[in-house]
Design goal:
Strand content: 5-15%
Catalytic activity: (R)-carnitine + hexadecanoyl-CoA = O-hexadecanoyl-(R)-carnitine + CoA
Largest sheet: 8 strands, mixed
Strand order of the largest sheet: 13-7-6-10-11-12-3-18
Pfam family, one: CPT_N
Membrane topology: Multi-pass membrane protein
Organism: Gouania willdenowi
Number of helices: 24
Shape: globular
GO molecular function: carnitine O-palmitoyltransferase activity
CATH class of one domain: Alpha Beta
Mean pLDDT: 89
Distance between the termini: 55 Å
């Protein structure tokens, strides 16, 4: 936009009398205000760097140190033990000026030293994790002192990234401990002969190759910020050559019972505004650092950095995450057309009503899609390694001209918006089936009406329902869930709507129309998108195979579970294993995602929640053992699960350590039969909890209908289940179950196999 205004801001013509200079003062004003916004952002970033750089102290604390040093010198005392005099010798000023300046230099050095000392102490405090393993009501004196000190350090108002340099590094577990915990995790899944074979493989690995790989891994941990995260991002996500749609991307849903407005453009206006307000908070670091619920312990915020203005760019062997510092527009898709919608004008964020007005212009635009434009998004949903992969197509057809400019507009946008032509949600004659179709629509849509490479895509349906689809490589679900909670709450409770369902605010009628993106896609490129063996066909086959079911469970919630003095998460995990046992007649390797954000740049760890204790309880229950015995076994299984979860959170997990050892072995060009077998084991039950992180945003007592549905993901194994769940309030748990139709042994609908829950 700024470039267009610059083109008309200065006009001149040559006349016989000389040069006639004409200025467009309106355009100059727009340019000026846009520049002011840019400089304000730069000043804000510089200010935040200073505040973060001195945390846990404050910039004003330098003044107190300087005054204290000057005061002691005034009383004829030398607090520097001669250092001020040495500094004074190197300053070419008068005696009085030398004394004052040398005292200030010493004060600054002392102040910086104190900051480093405080930061080191805070890092030591945050490295203490024993508090997680202590029983409720039986806190040790050490932990009580630790809590007091942490609160003392947290008395300042930290910025979003203030704690980053004080977070401890993820420790490398002892290889003996990891192998021991691994063997314990697979014991209930293996026969005696199979278990003995795995034990022999583990022992052989430890005595031979394992210790060698461990030394290299410890060497990496000495200089890397996090010894897992970079390899995890690259090898699990970016180097994956299969479709990221369904296999990697995940989705988030709207409110279950409420749609704030039935007006599609209005819902888009408020949703886009709320997202941009969140981005402003991230840029200004005004968001409070996330913490472990109920504590003052901070969590790593590094994943927030690439939330907006980010896309996954395809490569031949590996993709690359590209992030831009800022973007003043969003990309919009509607009925096969792509638009570039500016959301700022002269440095001012458009009002929700103005964004609604612009969205309505897109909805009313009667122009048809250009050749190849409608299904262009299929390039982001198919295989990365197919005959003509997305990377090669991008280089061949989208590296110059109008195609490059239009593709840049999508990839550099703040985020992607789809104005869907369908209605979705629970309402209708078939609420169960409607929720299932809603989930499938968010997970894959039509396979070409989402841009799966964007960090996240927002979907606004014709009836006003909304949702999102998120790319997984840049961040994990809790980060996106925090964003989506804020968006839903801001949309419904802060921005609101008029009585007729439109956004509030005024409209500047001089706003330019949304810019229609122009494409010149050759016929051979169009064929690559729609050919039976290429992008769209591969994606469509995958989408048709996915079986999704959304299951709101209202019989009871965490309130009743906690009355039994059992962890709600442990209860649900054991219930899922019981359901799987009844469904398949046995146990399986069970994946539960746990965070490691207690550490810098931490991401996830696996909780192997199928344990000897949980299997013992399920067998006793199925065999009809006495109620007291089953209750005792359930409590023991719950305590075991909680302990496994805590160990995963505190860096004592199994799978990330073994994964990194495997990566080292590949770098060294050596093979390990043990690691190869461990990493090829299928997760037939892959589970994840979506935590509600900002309960203060939702008043469920006064607004009980504003219940979040959470989100879900596709199955990890072809013959397994993907289960996501969200604990809502005290009396409700929402489940999202996925599987594949091609597997005759799995079915997602609870009426056909999950009523055991």
């Amino acid at each position: 936009m700024a470039e267009a205004h610059q083109a008309v801001a200065f006009q001149f013509t040559i006349t016989p009398e000389g040069i006639d200079l004409q200025l467009s003062y309106q355009a100059l004003n727009l340019i000026y205000r846009s520049g002011v916004r840019s400089w304000k952002k730069r000043v804000s970033r510089m200010r935040n760097r200073v505040i973060k750089g001195v945390f846990p102290a404050s910039p004003s604390s330098w003044l107190f140190v300087a005054i204290g040093i000057l005061a002691t010198m005034y009383m004829q005392s030398d607090p520097s033990m001669g250092l001020i005099s040495k500094i004074q010798q190197h300053l070419p000023l008068s005696d009085q000026g030398q004394t004052m300046l040398s005292a200030l230099v010493f004060s600054t050095l002392l102040w910086l030293s104190l900051i480093l000392a405080l930061r080191f102490c805070l890092k030591l405090l945050l490295s203490y994790h024993q508090w997680m393993f202590e029983q409720h009501g039986r806190i040790s004196n050490t932990t009580k002192i630790w809590v007091t000190l942490v609160r003392l350090f947290s008395s300042q108002k930290p910025l979003l990234y203030s704690y980053q340099t004080s977070l401890p590094h993820l420790p490398v577990p002892a290889i003996k401990d990891t192998l021991s915990r691994y063997l314990e995790s697979v014991r209930p899944l293996l026969e005696d002969t199979q278990y003995k074979r795995m034990t022999d493989l583990a022992n052989q690995f430890e005595s031979n190759l394992g210790n060698r790989l461990q030394r290299y891994l410890k060497l990496k941990a000495l200089w890397a910020t996090n010894y897992v995260s970079d390899w995890w991002e690259e090898y699990i996500y970016l180097r994956s050559r299969g479709p990221i749609m369904v296999n990697s991307n995940y989705y988030g849903m709207d409110f279950l019972y409420v749609t704030p407005t039935p007006v599609q453009a209005a819902r888009a206006g408020n949703t886009v505004t709320a997202l941009l307000l969140y981005r402003r908070k991230v840029n200004r670091e005004e968001l409070k650092p996330s913490r472990v619920p109920g504590t003052d312990i901070p969590l790593c915020a590094a994943q927030c950095e690439r939330m907006f203005n980010t896309t996954r760019t395809p490569g031949v062997e590996t993709d690359v995450l590209q992030h831009w510092q800022d973007s003043e527009f969003v990309a919009v898709y509607h009925r096969g057309r792509y638009f570039k919608l500016w959301v700022y004008r002269a440095g001012r964020l458009l009002s929700p009503r103005e964004i609604e007005h612009q969205m309505q212009k897109i909805l009313d635009d009667p122009s048809p899609p250009l050749p190849g434009e409608e299904k262009l998004g299929a390039l982001t949903s198919g295989d990365r390694y197919q005959v003509i992969p997305w990377a090669q197509t991008r280089k061949q057809y989208f590296s110059s001209g109008v195609n490059k400019r239009s593709l840049d507009a999508i990839e550099r946008s703040a985020f992607f918006v789809t104005l869907d032509t369908e209605d979705q949600g629970m309402e209708g004659d078939d609420p169960v089936g409607n929720l299932d179709r809603y989930a499938k629509s968010l997970l894959h849509g039509k396979c070409y009406d989402r841009w799966f490479d964007k960090s996240f895509s927002i979907v606004i349906y014709k009836n006003g329902k909304s949702g999102l689809n998120a790319e997984h490589s840049w961040a994990d679900a809790p980060t996106v869930a925090h964003l989506w909670e804020y968006t839903l709450a801001t949309d419904a409770f802060q921005l609101g709507y008029t009585e007729d369902g439109h956004c509030r605010g005024e409209v500047d009628r001089s706003l330019p129309h949304p810019q229609r993106l122009v494409w010149d896609i050759p016929s051979e490129c169009q064929e690559n998108m729609t050919n039976d063996s290429h992008s769209l066909a591969v994606a469509q086959t995958l989408a048709d195979d996915v079986d999704c079911h959304v299951f709101p469970f209202r019989e009871f919630g965490k309130g009743r579970i906690k009355k039994c003095r059992i962890s709600p998460d442990a209860f649900i995990q054991i219930s899922l294993q019981l359901a799987y046992f009844r469904d398949r007649g046995g146990f399986c390797l069970t994946y539960e995602a746990s965070m490691t954000r207690l550490f810098r740049e931490g991401r996830t760890e696996t909780v192997r929640s199928c344990s000897n204790e949980s299997c013992a309880f399920i067998r006793a229950l199925e065999d009809g053992e006495a109620e007291d015995q089953c209750r005792q076994l359930l409590r023991r299984a719950s305590e075991k699960h909680q302990n496994l979860y805590r160990m995963a959170m505190t860096g004592a997990g199994i799978d990330r350590h073994l994964f990194c050892l495997y990566v080292v072995s590949k770098y060294l060009g050596v093979e390990s039969a043990f690691l190869k077998e461990v990493l090829s084991e299928p997760w037939r039950l892959s589970t994840s909890q979506t935590p509600v992180q900002q309960m203060e945003l939702f008043d469920l007592k006064n607004h009980p209908d504003f219940v979040s549905l959470g989100g879900g993901f596709g199955p990890v194994a072809d013959d397994g289940y993907g289960v996501s769940y969200i604990i809502v309030g005290e009396d409700m748990i929402n489940f999202h179950v996925s599987s594949k139709h091609s597997c005759t042994d799995t079915v997602s609908n609870w009426n056909q196999g999950w009523s055991q829950l």
